Amino acid sequence: MMARAARTAILATIGTLIAAWVLFPILLISLAAFSSRAQLYSWPRAIVPTPPTLDTILFFLRAQGVWQSTLNSLIVALFTIVLAVAIGAPAGYALSRFRFPGREGFRLGILATKMFPATVLAIPLAVAYIRWGLYDNLLGVAIVHTALALPFAIVITTSVFVGVPMELEEAAMTLGCTRLQAFLRVALPIALPGLAAAAIFTFVLSWNEVFAAAILTLHNRTLPALLINAVAFAGAPLDYRFAGGFFMIVPALIIIFIIRRYLMTLWGVTIR
Amino acid sequence: MLLAPSLVFLGVFFVYPLVQAFGLSFLRPEGGLTAEHFQRMLGDTYFRGAITNSLLLTAIVVPIQVAIGLVIALLVNSRFRGHLWFLYICAIPLAISDLAAGLIWLSVFTERGYLNTLLHMVGAVREPLTYLSAEQPVWLYGAIIAAEVWRATAIVMIILLAGLQLIPRDYFETADVFGAGGWRKLWHVTLPLLRPSLQTALIIRTILAFQLFATVITLSGRQVPVLAGEAYFWYGLYRNPHVASAYAVLIMGVSVVITWVYLRVLRLREEEVAGG
User: The whole model's pTM is what?
Assistant: First the structure.
């Protein structure tokens, strides 16, 4: 009995430590974002800013290019969602409904694409984009993000459509619907929440992507591209950096919280 | 028919750039094969550091991530009270970019950062210490490792958790019948059955570790050069897509070789990678 209680206590301690390890840095960057520049550069420094101030966040929001690049990020994410779902969902539907020759090959190919992310694609594409007139163009960034998101979009939509019983569509077709009508009126409404989760996941991927966005843009920066450039080349002050970091994580955190259940399904974890 | 859009799209925006990467790095602008871009890459002052740091950081970070990821996955899978919240908390870093993670840890390790403040509060230092400088390579490395372990352990955890859930409960019940204790169950039942997932996690994390970029730049600038960072500098700073592509091809090559080594050493079939 004693040993069991001790074991539980040890496991609880480990669990608490890990949870604290994950949460604590997020708390710290939040505190930094609400400290004034003077507080951030003072010594000795207080951990909790007294009084908390919006100066640092406002300074960041008023800095040159921040609003524009936030808007750019949102536009790119929107394009990416539309492209990834429009291209990925049909493939996901096909994988969930039909057995066709080359099915396994296609699935393996999709997995292989996960292995060569932005770093390898971005530079050759930048050169090609200059020729195609897509360089420094938000659509060009969205296309790379789509290439990165597509494997995930296909995997998610496959699992979503597997969850929609085929019998329902067949029933609709015996009642006189065409295959397309059966899909649009029966399968699609049921699949909608899952498709929304795929869209939201795509948003987070695009919102967070740094490398390709930094390589492929010059003036039309997305938010991460603007930030990495400010950090790497322009020597941005600490308050700008911390407010920028905070500004980047808040939307992503909210979104991930909303789709937390689907997030696990994405990787094949069933929640029980 | 339904697959055509994704095949065309991936062909144009995935296969084409891969081929083009080789073209840019091996061809002269006016045509003809050349090794000149690779020679420039090899001769660059940052090259040795970049390849060493990328390999070393990968070798340190990935095992830590797999170990912690395994602990978290086992804890979640034990279904203690509140395990769902624990899972959600541990999954939070999935939503955080390498850039934001670097900035978060910068707030800890910068000269007037939280670490120095804490040390000052307990009376360990009077004046702020400098951690993120080339004179303090151990601290500089430590900061990058902390940020990477913090950010990217979640993905390992999720892959392992998915694998754990595939193990039928009966196996553990049988082990109980034979009187196996907790550790023996872990060593003789769980870990062998988890092998495919462990391999998937290892391969994915190792490949991603070679893409390591924004975390390092935010924490160290170019004091700790890494391969992906050099590709960025050669393109963004020197405007030289050829040498940048040579770095991209090198990253690709290292990733392929390492995957191949994992597959050979761990004797894994393709289906098992796909299954994870």
Answer: 0.86
Mean residue pLDDT of chain A comes to: 85
* Residue A39 belongs to some domain of the structure: no
For an interface test with B, the pick among A60, A85, A97, A123 (most B C-beta atoms closer than 10 Å) comes out as: A123
Give backbone dihedrals phi and psi of B140, rounded to 5 degrees, phi first. Answer: -60, -45
The model's pLDDT over A207-257, given as tens digits with 9 standing for 90+, comes to 999 998 998 988 889 999 999 988 888 878 888 999 999 999 998 888 878
Q: Does B270 touch chain A (CB under 8 A)?
A: yes
Q: Which amino acid is at B117?
A: T
Name the residue of chain B whose CA is nearest to A153's CA: B6
- Could you tell me if B97 and A208 are in contact, meaning their C-beta atoms sit under 8 angstroms apart? yes
pLDDT at B142: 93
Residues of B in contact with A108 (CB under 8 A): 270, 274
Partner A contacted by B96 (CB < 8 A): yes
Q: Does A23 touch chain B (CB under 8 A)?
A: yes
Query: Which residue type sits at B118?
Result: L
Q: Which amino acid is at A54?
A: L
Asked whether residue A258 is assigned to any structural domain, the reply reads no
User: How many residue pairs bridge chain A and chain B with CB atoms within 8 Å of each other?
Assistant: 259
B88–A contact, CB cutoff 8 A: yes
Are B20 and A124 in contact (CB < 8 Å)? Answer: yes
Q: Is the peptide bond before A101 cis (omega within 30 degrees of 0)?
A: no
For the domain bounded by B48-243, which CATH number is listed?
Answer: 1.10.3720.10
In a domain, A31, yes or no: no
| pLDDT, tens digit (0-9, with 9 covering 90-100), for B76-108 | 988 888 888 898 899 889 889 999 999 999 999
Residue A157 lies in a domain: yes
Rounded Cα–Cα distance for residues A129 and A143 (Å): 11
Instruction: Spell out the residues 6+ positions from residue B47 whose beta carbon is closer than 8 angstroms to its own.
Output: B41, B230
Q: How high is the ipTM of this complex?
A: 0.85
Q: Is B33 helix (H, G, I), strand (E, B) or coil?
A: strand
Cα separation, B275 vs B164, whole angstroms = 13
Task: Give helix B241-265 / helix B47-77 axis angle, nearest 10°.
Answer: 40
What residues of chain B, 28 to 57, have a C-beta less than 8 Å from chain A? none
CB contact A200 to B (< 8 Å) = no
Any CB–CB contact under 8 A between A251 and chain B? Answer: no
Domain with residue A214: its CATH number is 1.10.3720.10
Domain count, chain A: 1
Q: Which domain holds residue A224?
A: 64-236
Sorted by sequence, the CB contacts under 8 Å of residue A25 that are 6+ apart come out as: B104, B105, B108, B150
Nearest CA among B157, B159, B162 for reference residue B93: B157
